[in-house]
Amino acid sequence: MNLEKKVAAILANTMDTLLGATANELPIKSVIHVENNQINLNLCAGFPTVFLRETLLPALTSALKQAFPDYQVNVTLDHFIKAHLTQLPGKGLRGVKNTIAIASGKGGVGKSTVAVNLAIALARAGARVGLLDADIYGPSIPTMLGKTAPVEVSGERYLPVTAHGVQAMSIGYLTEGEPALIWRGPMLAKSLIQMIDITEWDELDYLLIDLPPGTGDIQLSLVQKIPLTGAIIVTTPQTVATLDAQKALKMFAKTNIEVLGIIENMCLHTCSRCGHQEEIFGSGGAQQLCATYQCKLLGQLPLDSRIGSQCEQGIPTTAAGTDELAMTFIKAALQASIELAKKPLNYADKFPPIVVE
């Protein structure tokens, strides 16, 4: 076995402790260059890699140095996030590479809380991320992201606010202090499309859209008109919640939008006093959904009072640090970005428009 093959074998066998996978099992391209007594291994992933530089990179470097003690070893890990296909061939949003819908079949499952934490997690992982609050009736994103500067206008477009490294837009930023909106379905869908169109996103790798809860005409109109790269379903383990999550899965299947995976929220509660753990809302619901609809379980999030209180203070869990609770969200966000990186690329924006005169 020559040296390059030995390096490739180490790539195939070195496990990343964060994701529980080897570099070969992840959408990572490797270039091995050996010259004299120097081994250069350059890795480039299709998903953000800041956290992997603290786990996978040291593990690979250590394994290579142990296998080749007489060589100088250099390992680099970077990422380049590309645009992937949407359900509307050849279409995408201006300034956005990939658009991901965060959906649930019903309210009360913590969808907005999950969306905020996923967005911040991806930004901390090294991606350029935006978050659109599509809940016109009850916009909660401004509260969860905390106090920000007012929305600015550039020409005929709104500039998104920035909080915790995330570009954000919500009807809550545009109607601050105004009375509650009372709009019918068609007007609501039209206003959302308009808000997306007039927002000047600044070169995003991912735009997460926090959809209104449910699977009615409003949600269907949105997913039919917005070019989406994929969707994430948020549910709780309860049978009632998983039954409604099935409706969301069927809605995306009907509109040819690939579901990147399911996130199960509030799955396990640990008593802060005695440490007793209890599955208050049952168990196994998300796993059964994933098995039935052949999609990935991206993560299981605990029922923890800190998650809600941190969002109410405008400092979401993933913005607060890298403790076990924050890392649960971060792992789920990375798993979603990995699933998206496996999708076919969108080459439509690489070609100039054809004009016939």
The percentage of residues in β strands lies in 15-25%
CATH evolutionary superfamily of the largest domain: P-loop containing nucleotide triphosphate hydrolases
CATH topology of the largest domain: Rossmann fold
Number of discrete helical segments: 12
Task: Explain how this protein is built.
This protein is globular. It folds into 2 domains: 3-79, Fe-S cluster assembly (FSCA) (GMP Synthetase, Chain A, domain 3), CATH 3.30.300.130; 96-341, Rossmann fold, CATH 3.40.50.300. It contains 12 helices and 17 strands. The protein has 357 residues and is an alpha/beta fold. The strands form 5 sheets. It has an 8-stranded mixed beta sheet, with helices on both faces. The chain has a 3-stranded mixed beta sheet with strand order 3-4-5, with helices on one face. Strands 1-2 form a two-stranded antiparallel sheet. 35% of the residues lie in helices and 23% in strands. The longest helix is centred in the C-terminal third of the chain and has 18 residues, at 324-341.
Give the topology, please:
Layout: H1 3-13, E1 15-16, E2 21-22, E3 28-35, E4 38-45, H2 56-67, E5 72-79, E6 96-103, H3 111-124, E7 129-133, H4 141-145, E8 152-154, E9 157-159, E10 161-163, E11 166-170, H5 171-174, H6 185-198, E12 204-210, H7 217-225, E13 230-235, H8 239-254, E14 259-264, E15 269-270, E16 277-278, H9 285-293, E17 297-300, H10 305-312, H11 317-320, H12 324-341
Helix pairs in contact: 3-12, 6-7, 8-9
